Structures are given as structure tokens and as C-alpha cells.
Fold this sequence. Notes:
Layout: H1 10-20, H2 27-46, E1 54-60, E2 65-70, H3 77-84, H4 91-99, E3 119-127, E4 135-140, E5 147-150, E6 157-164, H5 174-185, E7 191-194, H6 224-233, E8 239-246, E9 252-259, E10 271-276, E11 279-282, E12 296-302, H7 318-341, H8 343-361, H9 365-371, E13 376-377, E14 384-385, E15 394-398, H10 405-412, E16 417-419, H11 425-436, E17 439-443, H12 446-452, E18 454-455, H13 460-470, E19 475-481, E20 489-493, H14 495-504, H15 506-511, H16 514-523, E21 533-538, H17 542-550, H18 555-576, H19 582-612
Amino acid sequence: MAGFETAVDLDGLMSLLSEHLYSTPDVAIRELVQNAHDSITRRAILDQSAPPGRIDVVTEPAKQRIIIRDNGAGLSEPEFHTFLATVGVGASRGLRDLFESEDIIGYFGLGFLSAFTISDEVSVTSTSMATPTEAHRYSSSDAFTYTIDPATVGPIGTEVVLNLKPSHVEFADPSVANRLLERYCQLLPIDIYLNGSGPINLSPPWRNVGQLGTGPATPGGSDPGDLEFAGQFENRFEPLAAIRIGSPDGLYCGVLWIHGGSTYGNADNRWVSAYVRGMLLAENDIDLLPRWAGFVSGVVESTSLSPTASRETLRKDANYVEVQAAIAEDLIVGLQRIAASEPALWRRILRRHSESLIGAALGDSRLFDQVCEQVEIPSSAGDLAAHRLVVENHIYVTTGVKRGFEELLFVARGLPIASGDRYGVLEFLRRYVQDRGLRLIEIGSDSASAAIFTPARLDDEATSWLQAELGSETEKVVLSNFEPPNIALVVIPDRQAELHQRLQSDEIDRSAGSAMAALARLHTAEAVDRPMAWVHLNATCPTIQHLLAVRTHNPVGAMRAVTFLRAFKAAVLATDGEQDNQGGLDEAMGDALAMIDGLLLDGTEGVERGQGN
């Protein structure tokens, strides 16, 4: 079998790497500062007597150029060819592998190409620590061809000059350069100066006890320095509390903070800036935080997280998953420590994030145990702690957005109803009652109806008459005892029958697979013969008692009463919003108004007869 070699379009490859690898030209500055950082680190590793590292960024708006200088190891002439002019070969990766140093940032040997996305011409002048009596200058306008010439010998180090394209002259603006340096580079451990001023670097609090990863992990610490650091990064909310995170083996460090602004339910305000060895790589990698932590922001620095080739996102590899799980653990431990040691602060957190913590508690049993008696559950009686919802070993909860008359009856009896349609509430209460041997009554279920409606005795003939006069093919009329007695009837939709009807519709077949639809129908098969709604006539209501007493010897009066009850039932259905009943309401109200007109006419005739006599 013949063998062939894959052809490479060098021009196309270089264009792809230099123009399309990065999502924004901003990263060119980051990549060149990173190269300067690694060069300084390289010199420190090779020469322990090397001077302190320093990076200078100089903007020259008039010349439309920007300059980046460092006092790192520099490049010899062979290294120019190897590291600048060979795509995919970088000094940083080889040095990291050789010395097993995690302080080196670069890896792919591609960052230098980013300079050509914003520059018409790039020149690099360097004096190498290996050949301090020689200097060389690299120059290229397209990254495809280049020249290397002797240059005037200077201090050991490198100077990169970017002659900016007309479309990118804003990078020579000092304010733009300052913004970019603060965004990407302010956590680098090597001092960076802009036009001689600086350094612009911040010293993160976890480095106060040593270099990255050497200090103890103290989740839950409320050090004022942590909160001050959080304030320098948080531009949306005031940080309320800070939690130091980190692993004893040094794989990651950082600070998380709780937002001071209130959050509601499933609002997701997570924000995490991820730094790899001091360089910002992911400005908002929210997946590093648990999904339930919508009220948390943070800064994470790591030596184990790996960037993608563009160095703008992180690889979701095994190390990422490990750090992700460890951060979740630190956050839970931190919240527990705040609750235990800073009760006033914990109360403030609860007030602002009670709804979010309801959902968060479902993610971890320790957090649930911590907050289950403290978070407030939205209910018909306002926001209440879970134990205040307990009535005779029951907690009542509504499970739908629509508010039916059944709920009003519970409220009329003084029973608080938890809002189970709010984020996390229903599952939270299910777990709460299970742990305490209580019972959860979901309004709209058979158990809820049984808790409020007691069947009343009625003979078959009277039952048939009520069904014929007040019911329908989809509504079942029953006589029940319930409070308060001044409510003549209520209409309770049958939730299971409603679900069965929805599952039988064509919509379920369009939105779900046939197997899933068949399984769902199987679970609701018993609802086939159930009515769509139950009309509960109140046997404790004097009007209903009067109707049943006179229906045989005063059929005219009974039918007048039934006419009004039909209108009232239609009004209940329309107000309850459970079905489109506007046509039935119009007809029933028309009959009721005609009956009122008749009563008014009867009364008028009586008055006239009295006056005539």
C-alpha cells in the first residue's frame, strides 16, 4: 500500500492561527506580557542571583505603537529561530518540563502570533543571558517571513515593539492599556509598570502566607483583607461575606464572596474569574461554582487547571472536575462556619438570599441541616420559617401557579399555605417533613380535598337531582361539609384528570417521544373515569340546607335558587382561571339577571296591588 504525506497550506494555517485563534485582539497584550513573565521566571530558575523581575509597558500614541520590555533571560540568535519563528515551539513549555516548574505560564508556543492580529510590523530586540555580549533584532510584518539582524547590546532582557494597525491604534491609548493590564495581569507575581508608573499588580490575600498553594486552606475565614480584595473585583454588588478557599496540596487558592444584593429563587448571579499562575484565562467560568450558588462570586487561582489553545477558556478535564468539587466543598464548609461563628452576618445572608438558600440546601445534606429551620418559606401568610407552617403535624403547600378556591378555603381556616411553585420550595418541604415524621399535603391532590371536605349524607334521588341541575358531563356534584358556612359552593379541578387530558392531547406527542408519552399515560390511566372538576356544595351553608328542604314542595323557588347557583359556579370557574368558561359564564349570568328582573317585576306588581287596595 502506497504511503502519502498530508499537504499543509502554510499561508492558510498561519492566517488561521494569527487571525482566528483568539476571540478578541485584546489578548495580544496578555500573551506578550505572559511571554515577558516566563522569560523572567526562566532567568530566575537558571540564575539565582538574577535581579528582581520587572515588566514595563510603554504606550506611544503619537507613533501609534506600544512597547513591552522585560529583564528576563533574553533570546540568543538560535533561540529567535527556534522560539519565535517555529509555530508550536515555545521556550516556556520546554522549561517547565525540564525544571518541573509550575511558575511558567506558557505552553503551546502560539501566543507570539497574536501580536500580528493588531500590528503591521512586530520587532523584537533581545540580549540573552547566554550571550550577554551579543544582541539581535527580529522583524516581521506578516509572521510568514522575517529578518534577524545584529543590534546594539543592552541589558539582558527583551523589548517587543508593536507598530499598530490603523484599526487597533486604541491600544496605544494609556487608559486602554491600563484597563487591559488590570484585567488580565494584575495578579501576576512580577511587577508591571505602565509608562513608568506602578506597579499595577494586586497581591491576593492567599499569597500573604507564601507563594501560590503554600499557605493553609482556611475556608470560612472572615479576614477583612479577603473582603477588601473581593471589593476590588466585584462591580455588581457589595460583597457581604468572604470565604477563603484552597487546597493543602496547592492545586488552587482563592476567595469566594457572598453578594450583598438580594437574589430571588433561581436567579443565577455566579461570577468566577479563573487565573492560571496569576494570569487571567477565564473571566467568568461559572461552572467552577455549584449550580445552586447563584449568590456567590469569586476569584480562583490554580496551577492544575489547563487552558485551551486560545487560552481564553479552561479545559474540562479531570483536574477541572477535581477543583470544581473541592470548591463546592469549601463553599459549604465556609457557609457553615459563618453560621456558627458570625450569627449577625449569617442573619444578613439569610435575609438577602433565603430563597436561593432553599434551593442550595437541596444540594448538600449538611447545608440543609444548617438552614432548614432558618430560611423563610414564601406562603399565603408571608415568609415563614418551615416550623411555623406546621399545623397538627401537617404542612400545606400549593403546587401550581394558579390559585384555586380550594386554597382560599385553607386560608379561611387559618392554615398557612406554602408556595410550592417557588424555586426549590416543594422539594425542600418534602425533605423537611420526611426528616421530622410530618405529612405534606399538596393542595389539589385527593389528600388535600379529604383534609378539608367531609362527605355529607344525601339520598340517591337528591344526589341525581343536584347533578342534573348543577353538574355536567365533566363536573361531579357532591355534598360536603366544609368551613366557612357562608360559602355555598366551590369548584375544585381534578389535577390528575387534568394531567391525563394533557397527556392525551396531540401536544404531548409533538413535544415528547412516543415511549415517554405512553409511560406517562400509564401512570394516569386511573384518571380515565374521573371528572375534570368536583362541585362541592356546602352542607353547612344555610342556603344549601334551605334549597334541599324546599326543592320538592316549592320547585319554582328551588329552580330560582339553582339558577343563581349556576351563575355563581360559572363565576367561580372564570375567576379560578382553570378553564375557558367565558361562554358558560355569559349564559349563566344572563339567566341570573333575567331571574332578578322577574323578582323585581313581582315586587313591583305587589307594591302596585297594595297601593291600589
